[in-house]
Hints:
This protein is an all-alpha fold. The chain has four helices and no strands.
Amino acid sequence: MGFLIFAALAYAGGCFVCSALLVRLLPHSSSARLLRGNVVFVLTLPFLLLVEICLGLARLLLTLAAALNRVTTRAFETMSGRPRRRRVALYYGYGRTARRSRR
């Protein structure tokens, strides 16, 4: 029984110290902002770190997807010899230049 109490106190103390380091080293992360607002969430630090890792991976994948899109678009434009129709051009009509509005 004494070991369980010691283990629970060690877990709480470790989470508290690691949470303080997280808030100090990564102040703009979502977990740090949550911990600054509600100190009670210190005990959920492993879950918060898992969420932070997932968010970081999602940001990385979005960045890679955007870079791949740019490379693919440039390759297509180079191979076809024509620029790709952009959304702005499609909005104003069939790839023509935008009409000037009357004043």
